[in-house]
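Schema walkthrough. Field components (list of strings):
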Amino acid sequence: MTRYLRYLVPLAIFALLVALLFRGLSLDPKIVPSPLVGKPIPTFTLTRLDNPAVTISDADFKGKVSLLNVWATWCVSCRREHETLVQLAKTGQVEIYGLNYKDNREDANRWLAQLGNPYVANAFDSDGRVGIDWGVYGAPETFIIDREGIIRHKHIGPLTIEILNEEILPLVAKLKS
Amino acid sequence: MNPMKPLIPILLLSLVIAAAPLPAAVTLESFTFPTKAEEQHFKDLLGQLRCLVCQNETLAESDADLAHDLRAEVYEIMKSGKNDQEVIDFLVKRYGDFVLYKPPVKPSTYLIWYGPFVLLAIAALLLVRAVGRQRQVQEPEISAEERKRLDRLLGDDAGKGKQG
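Field assembly_structure (string):
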């Protein structure tokens, strides 16, 4: 046995390295885990996108399971994702709130008029200060918030039907039950 | 002709370009400080923090939109009289340990911090064992007949050496 050990040990180390590096190939360094998961949503008060006279705040998220989708008209992936959100809103499975991030109010309202509005309400974060509190670093991002107003999950990047079915909706259903 | 020769001017030019000052200085100019030392302190602090958009750039260097915003945020926090740790806590609370170029020592980072020392210890152990084993190697036992033959061979060799 010890005769083979001098060959087996390097081989095992090599295999371990291959496994580690291979795993690394499928990891996206752009996806940084959020420290906010498991914590209450940050407090904020912003005006509604559709009406500057009305405000929306963290208190609006209490008592229901909801999504907060961070988007902007300058964000190309958001446009790709929008159809998925419209479809999700149609199913009525979960309320979708929007955080319109560093955008222009007129452009954003036009976008919703043209492409459909899946949001219950949109908070208008023109300077991105609230976005910083939410740890936003690249739209689109989507948070899942439970009844107590705790962030349960953060998805970075555009949502697709597959991601909804595999990642988002199962957790929403679990939080609702 | 040396095939490398036409490349030399290109190599020299690329050296000049590489040595050109980074544009980082430009993006930091919009912040004013009462003293040079405070300005340097601000730059040093930003230099220890990673931008999440351009992940190989510090907050001091990055030209990403978020980096601009975060620089302004850090500036505001510092202006309000808070210390470096409070600035770092602000960013870590929102973006996680990822913003730190120097990760904190905690169970999930033990491998990064102590892994090299463990490897070094293993290597040292193997080295000590290998050296020890070599020392233990003794002269192989040989019979009287073999000894005689060995002496003869060695003796012959020595004799030949003298003749030549």
